[in-house]
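Q: I have 216 residues here and want to know how they pack in 3D. Can you give me a structure?
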Amino acid sequence: MSDQLALADWRRRVAALYADLRSDARADAIRLVTFRTRKDRLFGEHPQSPIPADARRDFRGLAYWRHEPSLTFRARLERDPAAPPLALPRSGAGDAMSYARIGWVRFAVEGTPCRLAVYWLDDYAGGIFIPFRDATAGRETYGGGRYLWDSAKGADLGSTADELNLDFNYAYHPSCVYDARWSCPLSPEENHLSIPIHAGERLDRAGASGEAEAAA
């Protein structure tokens, strides 16, 4: 299979993974286990996996925190139509990717008010993008932050009217954590949270790339 067709298949499979998640009516903890099992299999077997090819044979799955039901929210998008375009920082070389801040979402974690900017990718087909960095960054998670949404790549947790589903149990690392050949957009300062988010993917030091270690 050509690299281009393999990448198209990878994106198709990731989109299907999230589509099945959105339609899964089972208990939250069961949905999460199913999602993680399928994702780990995809990372271990697919030719476009961010796990380097020579490490896939010994790959036993990503590192995760246990399900945390208190870190699931439905948040209204507070629109920000006057926000100027911006280029988010990247983990490595590559052309800048143009984003626009389309609004904000607010929620509270154990009584601490939190706010994250919601971005729209201006290039090609567009898409919602929500990166974040929390107090675990640089120790338990990648120093450049993690992602909640990247709908241009299929990572879409769903929405209803003006409300977005935010579930930190599905927070994940960018591809550059596993292989420095990837150059990924990182969380800007306005999406840095002062509190720890002990949910979603965590950093497996044994499997982290040198790029990830340097940014941590």
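Q: Anything worth noting?
A: Residues 3-23 form the longest helix (21 residues). Residues 64-215 form one domain.
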